[in-house]
Specification:
Strand order of the largest sheet: 1-2-6-3-7-18
Strand content: 15-25%
Helix content: 25-40%
Mean pLDDT: 96
CATH topology of the largest domain: Aminopeptidase
Number of domains: 2
CATH architecture of the largest domain: 3-Layer(aba) Sandwich
Largest sheet: 6 strands, mixed
CATH class of the largest domain: Alpha Beta
Low-confidence stretches: none
Shape: globular
Structural class: alpha/beta
CATH superfamily of the largest domain: Zn peptidases
Number of strands: 19
Radius of gyration: 24 Å
Length: about 450
Amino acid sequence: MSEEQIIQKIEVNREEYIQFLRELIQQDSCNPPGNEKNVAVKVKEFLEKHAIKCKVIPFNENRANLIASLCDDFSKKNLLFNAHMDVVPPGNESEWKYPPLSAHMRRNKIIYGRGAADMKGGLAAMVITLAILKNLDLNLSGNLIFNGVADEETGGILGTGWCLTHELNSIKCDFAIIGEPTGINPLPKAIILGERGHLVVKITMNGIACHSSLPSMGKNAINMMSEFIHHFDKIDNYMEQVKPPLSLEELKELMSKAFPSNEIFEKILSEQTLLQNLLQSLVKFTKSVNMIKGGIKENVVPDKCEAIIDFRLIPGQKIEDVMNALKQVIEQEIGYKVLKKDEVKPNEISVVIEIMHESEGSYWHGWKHSSDLKEFTSIVEKVYKRTPFYFLYPAGADAGYYRNHDYCPATILFGPGSASTAHAIDEFIEVEDFINAIKVYALFAYKFLK
């Protein structure tokens, strides 16, 4: 009977819930600079309207984290919902069909806006779930905690990282869900069990400037960078080989569950380069030189050249191993000295390596034996009327904070929206997907905590 009450509650109040999502999308929380407090205030208003105490923790200029729970008793089973309140900037707004903060709704089926999928849809659905369980008074024995966080789009240190060591450090967590969009159209919803690590590095080549009529008097930093890029792929020779948590064959087997038969899956896979590349990205270390800056004038040999490199690590690979391998390439393959920034002297030929962002990958090793995950999967299949499949995330997420610090290894990613629309122009979310996510979160929370 309680499950029917939950579904009925959602259907009766769906217009209110849709309006709440639109209001969240309309709040500017682009990071940088952040402005997550704009969203936190709206969430607090909604929860307090439903008699739920909510704590907003402000920091810096108009930034905030937020925490709320069904009750003040954390001594029994605890389920944790995590959702980030920041979004990436919209880019060139003239390229959007509708203004990025308009939350324009088309034919009552699709809502457009920056953050609609990543991840204000998941954020709103989790907040609404808290209100539903509170209002129905279902006599739950455990507690549902909601953590709205800042800073996810720039690494999460000030958001999930901070909350873990301050607001959550004394609370035991039995299961956690992060509401990132896990749709991979046209496949069914994915339940994400792990994600890759992310390392962004800036390399600065320090040469010697001189007049370009006598280039041999100096040392061209752009040429130095060219040498480095020529030898860059040799980094693999200096990296310790790490076995991915799931092999390519295991990943293919998991993905094939979303198709009527293995034969159909293999045929579609052979035709879809996107799926092929997605699978490959999850079993290997990848790297890409994405930005280069050098030179000040057409007749000056440049003494500086900078490059930004994006590395993606498979779970188990260490940041320090990548940094050591990078240093080996520079010193062994092209013969330049790697120094710290404060060690560089004027007119000294050298290289500086700086970490701009770092997060190691993570993976829930015990997922195959979890009855809670089986229950969650069953609910997703029932609500969406399609069998979901287990998978890994090619990008990074805040789940690493929970898994890698042994706070809650049983952490999954699941949320409304398609991952392919995240960060894209004309980002959108389907209304029915959003409503279904509320049903999944609420039904699972009820069964987990009753």
